[in-house]
Design a protein that fits this description.
The chain contains seven helices and no strands. It is mainly α and about 180 residues long. It has a single domain, classed as Vanadium-containing Chloroperoxidase, domain 2 (Orthogonal Bundle). The protein is globular.
Length: about 180
C-alpha cells in the first residue's frame, strides 16, 4: 500500500474521519455501547440469528423444503469460518496498518489492536453469515445482512478499520457464501 494517499484528499481517509468524528460529541456510554456491539455483540447476534433460523426451518412441513433450508443454515457458520480463514493470508499479503497507526486525531474505541487492517474479520464473518442465511430464509437473511452493515459501520466508527477494509470484508464474505454454498 505504498501508493496510499494519507492526506485528506483520499476519500477512504475522509470518510473514516467523518464517521469516526461522530464519537466526538457522543456520550461515553454510547461509545462503550458501540465498542461492545462492534467487538462482540453483533457477531453474537448473527450467530443467534442462525440458531433462530435453524429452529424455524426444523418445523417446516415438507421434508424437501426443510432439508435444503437446514443445509443452508448449517452452511452459514461454515461459510463464516471459511471466509475468515481465507482472510488470514490476505491480511498478511496486503499488510495494511490500522488507521490509527497512520492517522493522528482518530478516536480509537478499541485500543490494543496490533494486527493488520485489510480485510475486516468482523465484517467478513457477519456478511458471510447474513448472505448464507439469505439463501435459507429471505427475511432473516435481510436481518443478518443488516447486522453485517451495522457491524461494518461500528468498525469504522471505532477507528480500527478504513471503510474499504469493511467493503472488502463484505465482498469476501459474500463471495465465499455464494460461490461455495450447497
Amino acid at each position: 500500500m505504498a501508493g496510499l494517499d494519507t492526506s485528506g484528499s483520499n476519500p477512504d481517509v475522509s470518510l473514516l474521519f467523518d464517521i469516526n468524528g461522530l464519537t466526538e460529541h457522543s456520550p461515553s456510554w454510547c461509545d462503550q455501547a458501540v465498542r461492545f456491539l462492534g467487538e462482540y455483540g453483533l457477531p453474537v447476534l448473527a450467530v443467534l440469528l442462525v440458531l433462530w433460523c435453524w429452529w424455524g426451518v426444523r418445523r417446516r412441513g415438507t421434508l424437501d423444503a426443510a432439508a435444503s433450508s437446514v443445509a443452508a443454515v448449517v452452511w452459514a457458520p461454515l461459510a463464516a469460518a471459511l471466509a475468515v480463514g481465507v482472510n488470514i493470508p490476505i491480511r498478511g499479503f496486503v499488510e495494511r496498518p490500522r488507521p490509527f497507526v497512520d492517522h493522528k486525531g482518530l478516536e480509537v474505541l478499541e485500543p490494543g489492536k496490533t494486527d493488520f487492517s485489510f480485510v475486516s474479520d468482523h465484517s467478513t464473518l457477519t456478511m458471510a453469515i447474513g448472505v448464507s442465511l439469505f439463501l435459507a430464509h429471505r427475511k432473516l437473511g435481510l436481518v443478518g445482512i443488516g447486522l453485517a452493515v451495522l457491524e461494518g459501520f461500528c468498525r469504522v466508527l471505532m477507528g480500527v478499520h478504513y471503510p474499504t477494509d469493511v467493503v472488502g470484508g463484505f465482498a469476501l464474505g459474500t463471495a465465499v457464501a455464494l460461490l461455495l454454498s450447497p
